[in-house]
Amino acid sequence: MASTVLAQPAVAAEDELAKETSTLTVQDTSEAQLPPHRSHDPQYNMKRSDPFQFGSRYLQEEDNVFEFNAWDHVETDDAYKEYAEQQYEMQRQSPVSDFDKRRFNSDPAKFWNVFYKNNTANFFKNRKWLQQEFPVLDRVTQEDAGQITLLEVGAGAGNTAFPILAANKNPKLKVHACDYSKEAVKVMRNHEAYDTNVMQADVWDAAGEDLPPGLGENSVDVVLMVFIFSALSPAQWEQAVKNISRVLKPGGEVCFRDYGRGDLAQVRFKKGRYLEENFYLRGDGTRVYFFDKDELARIWTGAAFAKKENAAEDGRESMEPQPSSSLFDIEELGVDRRLLVNRARRLKMYRCWLQGRFRKK
Length: 361
Ligand SMILES: C[S@@+](CC[C@H](N)C(=O)[O-])C[C@H]1O[C@@H](n2cnc3c(N)ncnc32)[C@H](O)[C@@H]1O
Fold this sequence. Notes:
Layout: H1 11-20, E1 70-72, H2 78-93, H3 98-106, H4 108-118, H5 129-133, H6 135-140, E2 148-153, H7 161-167, E3 173-179, H8 182-189, E4 199-203, E5 220-226, H9 237-247, E6 248-259, H10 264-267, E7 274-276, E8 279-281, E9 287-289, H11 293-301, H12 303-314, E10 328-342, E11 347-360
Parallel strand pairs: 2-3, 2-5, 3-4, 5-6
Antiparallel strand pairs: 1-10, 6-11, 7-8, 8-9, 10-11
Helix pairs in contact: 4-8
Bound molecules: S-adenosylmethionine.
S-adenosylmethionine is lined by residues 15, 19, 112, 154-156, 159-160, 179-181, 184, 205-207, 226-228, 231-232.
Enzyme class: transferase
Keywords: Methyltransferase, Transferase
Organism: Monosporascus ibericus
């Protein structure tokens, strides 16, 4: 079973894999020598629809798993589940030291700054899947969509913001792209497509006390959060969700994608990386959490925090959250599972992401 797990990658490589393989088949260099696979020819590929639709390649009993390099919606097998549990136990036994916990939790933006200083190549990816996965992005970029304010939280190098602007036909769309790493904001501001008439990149801590520069309460139509919530510690979730709720208009929508529990990136963490349950320190000092679907729903509805508030008010633990704490309606929340196969090395890699749309009450 150990052969299914690859070495711990740097965050850049890991996130590239997470982001881009979520909709694209893996570009495995070890396969570059192989002739084009028949999966690319609709004549032979019964698993393929034309035009190609991601998410539709189901692995069935008669299939040879090593025939194609990615399969959709694949549940992990028992051997992998057992292996994952063993890994979690090993990780718990060797946590990050208290000294390092303080060091890495006290100023996490510092490590993202180093990340954006060091990784100047391969930043920009054309995320063609955005509009497909989040139809609201298609709607707000139509010519006649009217005045729209879109906020991207934890925008990084602008991998989401710039493709949206490239596809935009709405003259009244304004994109605010915020990140608490000043180096990330520099990268966005230096991008050739950066134009302050349509975009504003700012430093903003999503888990801080303030709203983003230039944005007031109830001023935003759509919030985008792509692999940012996992960078927060569990202690920051409540403040972040409340900030997003404050800045969104009633009825406004959050488009969310992030790591899911049991993802390969979680399972392969080695000793000395465990911060707390499902929360880890990467080799470059950045942090990452792996979410469970129900947990995420409790966070965004506010139920996860209602318990705490009730307990504080009553001086006892209340079992049921109060409806007054409800922040967002969960319009959609799905687990995106993918089995990636390295056919040359006969490795199986299970990826898992959560994707959802949450609407402010
Ligand atoms: C994995 S990267 C994702 C970047 C971008 N969303 C993407 O998908 O390419 C996580 C980003 O979240 C930012 N981030 C982490 N914590 C944050 C916070 N509290 N407030 C704002 N940005 C934060 C990091 O600086 C980093 O740019």
